[in-house]
Amino acid sequence: MAERIGSQVGGQRSEAQSAALYARARQWIPDGVSRATLLRTPNPIYVDHGEGAWVTDVDGNRYLDCNNNFTSLIMGHADIAHLLAAATAALPS
Questions:
Q1: CA distance 44 to 26
Q2: Are the C-beta atoms of residues 62 and 56 closer than 8 Å to each other?
Q3: Which of 8, 36, 57, 83 has a C-alpha 20 to 30 A away from that of 23?
Q4: CA distance to 6, 15, 20, 44, 63, per residue, from 52 (Å)
Q5: Is the dihedral of CA 14, 7, 44, 41 positive or negative?
Q6: How confident is the model over 27-47, as pLDDT tens digits?
Q7: Closest to 77 (Cα-Cα) out of 59, 61, 65
Q8: What secondary structure letter does DSSP report for 52?
Q9: Which of 89, 26, 21, 5 is CA-nearest to residue 58?
Q10: What gap in Å lies between CA 22 and CA 6, rounded to an integer?
Q11: Angle at 12 between CA 10 and CA 15, to 5 degrees
């Protein structure tokens, strides 16, 4: 089954929660986002979580993360091998 990039509702992505977060964020952060690359019209994408190369926003829209958050996440989001390694390393000896 092929993955869709971005969920569609009536031909548009769902964005009710993103609109509310954007309105709130604009009170405190210039343009409502901390990075200009995240600014989208009419609302930025507020990511809820990521897994592998995919991110899901607060409205449930799923996107292929071609930007991969620049260099801070070069291994992808929640890579299972890295999560297991970190969890194992955190266990008491």
A1: 11
A2: yes
A3: 8
A4: 16, 23, 27, 21, 11
A5: negative
A6: 988 777 766 556 577 888 888
A7: 65
A8: B
A9: 21
A10: 19
A11: 115
Q: Check: pTM over 0.85? Answer yes or no.
A: no
Closest CA to 39 of 27, 58, 25, 53: 25
Of 52, 78, 48, 80, the residue nearest 65 (C-alpha): 52
Estimate to the nearest angstrom the gap between the alpha carbon of 11 and the chain centroid. Answer: 21
Instruction: State the pLDDT at residue 89.
Output: 92
Residue 57 corresponds to which amino acid? D
Q: At residue 54, what are phi and psi to the nearest 5 degrees?
A: -110, 145
- Cα–Cα distance for residue pair 22/19, rounded to 1 Å: 5
Round to whole Å and give the CA distance between 68 and 84.
21
